[in-house]
Amino acid sequence: MNVDIQAINEKIERESAFVEKITAEVGKVIVGQTYMVERLLIGLLCNGHILLEGVPGLAKTLTVKTLSSVIQTKFQRIQFTPDLLPADLLGTLIYNQKTGDFSVRKGPLFANLILADEINRSPAKVQSALLESMQERQITIGDQTYQLEDPFLVMATQNPIEQEGTYPLPEAQVDRFMLKLNITYPNKEEELDIMQRMTSGSVPDTDPVVEPKDIVKASLVVNEVYMDEKIDRYIVDLVFATREPEKYGLKDLAPLIAFGASPRASINLKLAAKAHAFLRRRGFVTPEDIKAIGLDVLRHRIIVTYEAEAEEVTSEDVVRRVLNQIEVP
């Protein structure tokens, strides 16, 4: 099959011009956090959702809210609590006594960007209602089913510190998130900048630079990013190395991995790598794209054994070993 890389490259360069505008606008309000903004854009371009772990106060809400205003989408933040009900997210039927009819009151999930704050604070029924709408991209209220608008992205956060009174997400449900991010503290210079900005009495305004339809159009263009079959095979090798480590020269990892990555990992790794190349304004995927995004796609899809926990080996350590071991094409 003949592929005109130059033509694809030119098209991607043209279609991805808005990326720099978005990051520049978001940068007016958000200091640093380029990693989080980039991963949010990857989620939007791939129709994937993001699970984020980080201590409070790292500008998670502000980042999503700012991005939402820059791309002119509707934003909703939902604080998950133990007394939340599925209807609080999805909406409900309201009875009108005068007419004797029921009318629909849509819930906060009818937005484009959702920040599900501390998702592990709510019971399983609420978590499954959210995850179903993420997967199906539709919500049923009474006997009516409503399609959710594109783009639709859920960024769910988990607080890694307090585990008391929480309902951890089952592993099978965690697998539904395309990426899992670990957000760390800013460096000294960034912290100084944050402190000065946030105590100046005024937050800079952002200008909308793209419309939701531009994001939807770009997500279709991302599919055109070229990926060589060698890189396809590289992805499959990475995923299989988490399932059969001894076949890939990683015999010592075998007792540390209870379950390797699922086929969703291969699919999401390919999609995310294409979006990563798109953000770099490139029409083709390189192994560096896979390595850059590999940890975010795989860290929540590998379940380590008790032995690994006893040795303080995390799923991230396993992924890093695999990424370093598997030969790059």
Can you describe what's shown?
This protein is α/β, with parallel strands linked by helices and 329 residues long. It folds into 2 domains: 30-198, Rossmann fold, CATH 3.40.50.300; 225-325, Helicase, Ruva Protein, domain 3, CATH 1.10.8.80. It contains 14 helices and 11 strands. It has helices at residues 5-15, 18-29, 34-46, 60-70, 86-90, 124-136, 171-174, 188-198, 212-222, 229-243, 263-279, 287-298, 306-310, 315-325; strands at 50-53, 75-79, 91-96, 101-106, 113-117, 138-141, 144-147, 153-158, 179-182, 257-259, 303-304. The strands form 4 sheets. A 5-stranded parallel β-sheet has the order 2-5-8-1-9. A two-stranded antiparallel ribbon has the order 3-4. It is globular and about 70 Å long. The mean pLDDT is 88.
Brief summary:
The chain has 329 residues and is an alpha/beta fold. Helix content is 46%, strand content 15%.
Topology:
Blueprint: H1 5-15, H2 18-29, H3 34-46, E1 50-53, H4 60-70, E2 75-79, H5 86-90, E3 91-96, E4 101-106, E5 113-117, H6 124-136, E6 138-141, E7 144-147, E8 153-158, H7 171-174, E9 179-182, H8 188-198, H9 212-222, H10 229-243, E10 257-259, H11 263-279, H12 287-298, E11 303-304, H13 306-310, H14 315-325
Parallel strand pairs: 1-8, 1-9, 2-5, 5-8
Antiparallel strand pairs: 3-4, 6-7, 10-11
